Each structure stands twice: as C-alpha cells, then as structure tokens.
Amino acid sequence: MQDLAHFFISIAQLLSQPVIILVLFCSTFMGIIFGAMPGLTATLGVALLTTLTYSFNESIALVSLLAMYVGAVYGGSYTAILLNIPGTAASAATAMDGYPMAQRDGAGRVLGLTTTASAIGTIIGMLFVVLLSPLITKMALQFTSFEYFLLALFGIIISGTLTSSDLVIKGWIAGLIGLWMSTIGRDQLLMYPRFTFGNPNLDSGLEVVAVLIGAFGIPQIITALRARVKLAKPVRIKRVLPEFGTMLRNLPTIIRSSLIGVGIGAVPGIGEDIAGWVSYGTAKKFSKTPDEFGTGLPEAVISTETSNNACIGGAMIPLLTLGIPGSPPAMMLLGALMLHNITPGPMLLIENPNFIIEVAAILLLASVSMWICGITLARYVTRILEVPQTLFMPVIGLLCVIGSYALGLKIFNLFLMLPIGLLSYFLIQMKYPIAPLVIGVILGPMADTSLRRALMVSQGSIAPIFERPVSLALFSIIVLLILSQIPWFKSLFGRVQREISSKFHHSH
Amino acid sequence: MKKLITLASAALISMAAQAGDFPERNITTVVTWGAGGGTDTMNRLIMGEMAPKLGVNINVVNVTGGVSGSAGLVDGYGRAADGYSLVGLSESNVAAGVMGGWSNRMDVFDYFIVAGSPDLISVSTKTDYKSIEDLVTAAKANPGSIKAGAAGAGSIHHLNLLAFMKGTQTEFNFIPYDGSAPSQNAVLTGEVELVITSLAEQSQLIQSGDFRPLAMLVKDPVTVKGNEIPSALAKYDDLNQYLPISQSIGFAIRKDAPKDAKVAIAKAFTEAMETEKVKTFLDQNYYVASGQFGKEANATFSKLEALFAWTLADLGAAKVSPDSLGIAKPN
C-alpha cells in the first residue's frame, strides 16, 4: 500500500517538472526512430543518450534512457510492417503477420494494434518488476549452461518451424545455416579461430546487424523492384484508431505474451529477439485458427509486440535485483546508472527501496508517451508508402548500406551484407524462410559456448540435461517439436488422438 | 617600426602557441570495449569531467570486436595523430598483439590511467568454504575437481586464477565465461564454486550476503562495510612471485601527437581526477584511483604487455610469438 502511494507520488513528481515531460517525449521519439532505422539499435541509442545526459541530474537521465529503450523496442515494428524489413531483430516475428496484414487492411490498422500492444506489454512488464521481482529472480537462477544451450536451440527450431511456408525442414535448414555462420570467428571460450582464413575482420565473427540488414533488406529490395509490387495499400486515413475492441477480444493472448516476455527478459543474456518468436509460436498453438497465421492475423502481431515490450520490464529485474543485465540495452543502462552513482545490485533494494518504484513510474510514463507518439506518428509514416517504388527502394538500399556501416564504422560490414543478401534472396526464391537464419546467427554463439561450457562443467557428461527440471522440460519440448514433423509420428499421434477422443465420446 | 611589428606579431604567435590552441574542436574517444562495461563507464565519466576543462565536447564511441579489443585499437590508432582522437582502453587490450589482432606494440601510445579495482576470490555463501585455506586444502585433496569461473581465456581474471594456481600449487577446473557478470551469475546458480572478478564487480553481492569473499589477490587486505577481506599474498608467500596483476583502466593518445595537445589533455586529466564526481564514483564502486600518466603509466602498460603476452604464449593461446613482436619475457 505504501508502495502504491509512493508510485503515484513519483509519477506526480515527474509530471510536475515540464523539463522531464519534454525529455520524455523527445527521448521516446528518438527511440522510435532508432528502432525503425535498420542498423541503429536500442543499445546504441541508450549509449548515445548516456553521454548526452551525463551532466543532468539522475531523474532526467533515467527518464531519457528508459524512454529511449521503450521507444526503440517498439520502433522496430514500423519497418517490419511497412516494408517487411524488421528494424531490429526483436521485430522480425512481427513482420510475419504485420506485413501481409498491412497489405490487406492498410498499414494504419496494424500500427494502431502494435502501438497499443507495445504500450500494454511495457506496462504489464512494469507491474511484474514491482510485484514479483524476487520470485522471478529465483526462476532466472535456474538457468545454467545446459538450459542456455537448450533455450537457444529451442529459439532456432521454433522460428524454423513457424516461418516455413513450405516444408518445415526448410526452416530448420535455414536455422542450421545461421548456426553455422555464427561459428565464424574466434571461439569465445578459448579464442581459437574458426573459418576466419586469417582475415582479422572475421575475428569477432559476423556482425549481427549486417546480417540482419542483408538478409531482410536486400531480398526485399530485389523482389520489390523485380515485381513492381505496390508496397502496401496506401489507404488514406484520418487517424489511427487503437481498436480497443480487438484488444479486448485478444486479452488472453496479451496476458500470455506478456508473461512470456517478462520471463525471457528476466533470463540474463537473452531478450527481445527471441521473446517475439516464442510468443508467436505459443499464440499459434493456442489459436482457434492456427492455419491463418502468416496471412495477417491481428492476434499474431499483438502477441509479438506485447511480448517484446514486456521483455523490458523482465530485463530490469535481474539488473535491479542482482546487478546482472538481462539484455544488451540493459547492459548499457547498468553503466549509465553507475555514472549517476546508482549501482544496481542486491544492495540497491536495501539501501534505496524506493528506486524500483521510481523505475516503474518512469516505465509507465514512457509507455504512455510511446503510445501517444506512436498513434500520432503512424498517420504520417503510412504516407511513406505513397512514394513511388522506383524512388523509394533506392533510398531504402542506401539506408541499408549506411545502417550496416554505422555500427562499428566498418567497411567490411558492407562486404558481408551484400553476399548474405544475395544468398538470402536465392534461399527465399527456393522457399526457404530467412528469419531462422538470422535467429541462428544471433543465438548461435550462445548455443555453442553454453553447450561446450556445460560439458566442461559436467566433465563430458550429458546426464544433467535429464536431471535438471528446466532443462528436461526444454529438451522434451524440442524433441516433440521435431517428432511432430515426422510423417509416421504425425499419423501415429493423430491416430492415438482420434482413438482417445472416440473412446471419450463413446463413454458419454 | 616594421621590425617591431614583425617582432610583436611573432611574439604573439608564439604566445598563442604557448598558451596552446588545443583543442579547437571536439575530441572523439574510441572505447575498445562494449557499451556499459567498466572501461566504457570509466571513460564516459572521465571524459565528462575533462570536457568542460578543455572547453569542447568529447564524443565517446564504442568500436568493439576483434581479439582483446583489437578492432578499437586498430580504429583508434588509425586516426590522425592530432590529439583529437583518444582510445579508451584497459589492461586486457595489451594481449591484442600476440592474439594476432594488430601488428603494433603497445608503446605507440602514451597512457592515462584513471583507476583499477583489485581482484579477489569469492565463493557462494551456500558452500562450505569458510576461508582461503579451506579452498586450497580441498583443491589439493582433489586436483581439478573444483570449478572456477572467470572471464574468457586471456582476461585479467583468468591470469589471476593462473597465478593463484601456480603460487599455491593447486589445480582448478577453469570454466570460461563471456565476461565478469556471467561468471558471477554462475556462482549464484551453483554452476561453479568460486569466481575471480574485481572488487568493483563483486561489492554488491558481497554486501548482500550472496558472496563470501575469501581472499584479495593484492598485497593488502581490504575492508568492505566493516568486514576485512584478508590478502592471499600474506598467507601464501609463493604468490608474491606472480601477483599482483593490477587492473588499469583509462585512455591513451598516439605517441606522435603534438606536444601541446598532450599537455592540455594531461592538465585536464589531472584536474578531472580531483573532481568530487570522479572521487565519489571511484570510492563508492571500490576502485583504487591511479591518476598515472607519462613515463609511469607507460611503464605500467609495458609491464602488463609482457605479462599478458608471455602468459598467453605459455598457455598455447597466443597466435603470434611475443619474441617476434620484440616483447621481452618478464622475470
């Protein structure tokens, strides 16, 4: 009760300062732009603002950093929906249904849904920070190397299963290609060079952003220019409606996706990238119309956008309770907080128990400002699609080049982006989904190092997989996922199911 | 008259040069490690304090990757030697040469060391190891069975672990992690028994009672909130041959940069080190302030370079032999 009072006092205090409100909106807006631009990431945005807010007081800095984070995670959905090029890896799952839906119903409708879903996701994530931090911390501490390995493998397999419009095995093949690509570079445990051919540019492995832009951007540009397709229906809209009715109907999806987002965000080291996919997969599993996933289903975009924003709250939990950042942007946040003489960790909650409430208050304000910015912006950004193809696609191409170069300022990234783009184009032509490849590159290092580290710890034994509850559960899910695609198992499983249900009916 | 004007203007020009025109524009600091890490945070702090003293902005950018942060070294060293480009780095960069990341020695830079935090060995409070002697006895009874977590091969914490094993004639099962935070997390999850990271990184977990600090890996004991952590060097005399290996976080400027730029930066650095904000930060986060620059700092880095290079070579992890780079073996 006292916490609740403090929560409202914090909000009132923040809102009573005009400069805070200004900073809030500016940072959210910047965050959305950072998220939407392929190549600019939430981490980079937070890093930039850390320097800019260095000389300001703690609350201004905190407001701007969190607003930037919230905006950037949401902003990635813009380009995913409008162009089928996700601005961040976090929004790759949103493109699956967001893009076809935008082509069918107009981008305004989709943006209305995703904006509201993101705001709700952030708020639910925030509630978990306040209410369940200690419990979630305990859960996150169940994750040792075997669990990390299985979780990464699960992420790759599920995205392969979900994205394939043809044979599911094609999705897995794409995922495995990504997994192989992630082994290029020095291995992170013993620094042994793999597939680097003596080229120092490859030492640190393939840059994820260059792979992301190449794999999603280039094929889309080639396809659009070849087919001369209209990007999306340029529906003239007066304003973007949040569609509260649709949101209410999808309440179970929203709650489920938020839980997934918070849970995944709380596990240190992984975040938004994988949350979208897991939540998309679960939504499909529970859906009444699973076959329509991928054709532009409101509940699909709602599920992905709610969960990737709920991740923010989740990532704050280990940061604030253990001093361990739950995601890459949270890592930057840790450094920024330390500059303002706040050291996140277990002592923070003992010495400054109100801090977590203040963070929650700021997250709430950030999600409100994100919602206002988003709904206002959506009206204008949909007009981008009215620009003729022949003008628009070269601009996107240029942005892809700049985006790949900007991160790390390495020319080598361009040499990386182009061949990966061409490879992806041909894979797409052969009906291989491309998202699992990118997820493979992102989660590959975690799968690789975690498995090897786990085997170092267990001295070569794989028995711990079956002895630890979380890893056993993950292992069983993966085995079921794979078996369910094998024809004889499918028919066997179907027959068993039919028999059970027929017996069930007889007895009635 | 004409002569006088020439003389006067010459005097003026030289005075202007004396007073130092540096800096006329903004400075960029290339940090070789990731955003939010120790080196990054320290650089953002010191640059934030130096900027008003120099009267320009200092932009901090992260260029990460390669081996031992070599991508940032290559980038930072590749910029013009005009004093407008600095490189944010730490002791762990010195291995970049032997790891094949870049072809220069570390002596192409002049160093400014802000601070470092001493390493220590800690275990989870759930384990039975109450003292460093308990741990050493257990390790001697079952060599290689106790799991020790630390950041990846060739990191300063790994080097500290190697030195500790040599000095106490023990053997642990070294489990490498992607950084200090994941290795500390592994103690909390029970994946490893002990961890070596810096006091700055552990202080919160020690104070909260999650970690039991067993021994400092520096000469002197340290007191954290009233509890003294003893020095391992005092208990095991042989350790003094190999330890301490001190962490050194700061930044560097190209050695061939103009002298007036170096002087201006050294002045701003010294003043920044004295500010309340820097002092409070270092104090609260258990860093030991250094403030070294010039010959002293360069000697520190030269020593670190030799130590890292030869340790990695002995481990078989070095790609380029220290000999071929002209790095002498430390005695």
Automatic annotation (TrEMBL), chain A:
InterPro entries in the record: DUF112_TM (IPR002823)
Residue spans crossing the bilayer: 6-25, 32-54, 60-85, 106-133, 139-160, 167-185, 205-229, 355-378, 390-412, 432-451, 472-489
Name by which UniProt lists this protein: Transporter
Superkingdom, natural source: Bacteria
Domain DUF112: 21-439
Keyword entries, A-Z: Membrane, Transmembrane, Transmembrane helix
From TrEMBL, chain B:
Family: Belongs to the UPF0065 (bug) family.
Endpoints of the signal sequence: 1-19
Keyword Signal: yes
SUPFAM superfamilies linked: Periplasmic binding protein-like II
Matching InterPro entries: BUG, Bug_dom1
Keyword line: Signal
A UniProt-annotated Pfam family: TctC
Protein name per the record: Tripartite tricarboxylate transporter substrate binding protein
Transmembrane parts of this sequence: none
